[in-house]
Design a protein that fits this description.
Blueprint: E1 6-9, E2 14-17, E3 29-34, E4 39-44, E5 47-52, E6 55-60, H1 62-67, E7 72-75, E8 81-85, E9 89-99
Antiparallel strand pairs: 1-2, 3-4, 4-5, 5-6, 6-9, 7-8, 8-9
Length: 101
């Protein structure tokens, strides 16, 4: 189901999320799990996405438009989103938190 958003299994149901639910893009890729804090990070053409339980946080960047989005995203020890862009390099990004309904 590429380019159709995010699907989260809560142990009982499959829940589907798209741009109308606040995702930065339905094209999310390259999941990275933070096993210590329980976060999952995705890359998208609009920026990075961090998911923690029923909350997701988006990280937007002007670099996303020029490069097609980050190829990899993760949170550093200080709470900053670090994104790697092919051909551009590393970028530290600002966040916007939203609750998934």
């Amino acid at each position: 189901m590429r380019n159709r958003g995010l699907v989260i299994f809560d142990g009982t149901n499959l829940n589907f999320y798209t741009k109308k639910d606040g995702l930065p893009s339905t094209n999310i890729t390259n999941p990275i799990a933070d096993e210590i804090k329980g976060n999952v990070y995705f890359s998208s053409p609009a920026g990075a996405l961090k998911i923690t339980g029923n909350k997701f946080q988006t990280f937007y960047s002007d670099e996303s438009v020029a490069s097609g989005g980050p190829s990899t995203s993760a949170l550093d020890g200080f709470g900053n989103m670090v994104e790697f862009y092919n051909g551009v390099g590393l970028y530290i990004n600002k966040s916007e938190e939203k609750v998934i309904r």
